[in-house]
Amino acid sequence: MSEPSFEKKDTPESVETTAEPSSKPLAIASAHAFPNLREDQVAMAMKFLSDPRTIASTSSRAQKEQFLRTKGLTDAEINASFQRLDASANQSVPPTSSPAVPSGVQLQPVYFPPPPPPPLPPSEPTWLTLLKTVVGAGTALMAGWWLFNRTRQEQQQQAVRQRAESSDTAAERDRLLMELLARERERKAER
């Protein structure tokens, strides 16, 4: 008697299993777990789910399932897509291991350069630094004094001009008044 194996028979009514010996391993169990799957739709769903933009999106699994339902996939096809995607992701993770070293090869230690020395503390001021500071401060004070005096002189000159103009105006006014008074006296004297 032979061992039974499960193979899919392409009959539209139902899925049957036969007890025929098979050389194929039982690796395609997911296809037999969901017998009425449209493989092209499942492949399309897997392509959508494994797309980098879909992976990077913040959509939940429920939102992705809802999207696939709107594209006409059944719940069984959606579940099969997620299961196959999970299975392929688990198989594609490479094991982490250290590289093999051939026998007879001696490993030599790796020496790293020493760290750079710490920065030097600030040095004490030298006579040149002090000289530059004194000259700079003196120049700034002289420039400020010159600007102050220049502004003060301009204000004084403007005040003198205003006084001169006002005194000229007052003198002109006084002269005109004197002329008017003199004419008025002459008229009175003629009468």
Automatic annotation (TrEMBL):
Single Gene Ontology BP annotation: protein import into peroxisome matrix, docking
Major location (coarse): membrane
Basic and acidic residues biased stretches: 1-12
Pfam families from the UniProt entry: Pex14_N (PF04695)
Domain spans labelled Peroxisome membrane anchor protein Pex14p N-terminal: 38-83
One cellular component term from this protein's GO annotations in UniProt: peroxisomal membrane
UniProt keyword list: Membrane, Peroxisome, Protein transport, Translocation, Transmembrane, Transmembrane helix, Transport
Described purpose of this protein according to its UniProt entry: Component of the PEX13-PEX14 docking complex, a translocon channel that specifically mediates the import of peroxisomal cargo proteins bound to PEX5 receptor. The PEX13-PEX14 docking complex forms a large import pore which can be opened to a diameter of about 9 nm. Mechanistically, PEX5 receptor along with cargo proteins associates with the PEX14 subunit of the PEX13-PEX14 docking complex in the cytosol, leading to the insertion of the receptor into the organelle membrane with the concomitant translocation of the cargo into the peroxisome matrix.
Protein name: Peroxisomal membrane protein PEX14
Organism, scientific name: Perkinsus olseni
